[in-house]
Design goal:
Structural class: alpha+beta
Order of helices and strands: HEHHHEEEEH
Radius of gyration: 17 Å
Strand order of the largest sheet: 1-2-3-4-5
Strand content: 15-25%
Largest sheet: 5 strands, mixed
Oligomer: single chain
Shape: globular
Distance between the termini: 36 Å
Amino acid sequence: MNSADLHPARIPGYDGGPLTHQVGLLDEPLFWLGHLYSCVQSEEVEELLFGADYDAAGDFQRRLWERAEWPTFTVPLADDHRVHIVYRTFADDTGIDYLLYHPDWDQAELLAQDDGHFMGPGLSWPELVPHQATFALSTTARRRRSSAWRFRQMM
């Protein structure tokens, strides 16, 4: 799988866009606070998740949803499968689409949508866990490179 496969300008069978690969957002802690927010079911969990960063996370998420482009991330899976995660930034229809795709398929399959009312089926843990090591290794390597770059900039 080459890097162009992981940064598609278009996802077969998906009509949204413009898609833009925004992997830098994944290193932003405020991004993750907003991404996980739809899982929050109580004020206690909300306080634990956001803590003192509540206002900063809210500002960050507002700017994310006001973009003209649609931030997109791709998670490589086994056997050349991949999950595309698309942040739909329509003014009145924001949400996150999760699409499963393989290059031999005519189009991607919608796994889930998170846009005020979750729509599944999604992936079960047994389906996802075998691929976790691959994703964790690539994320760890990217973070190490990013940390090394920041350290060199400080010197």
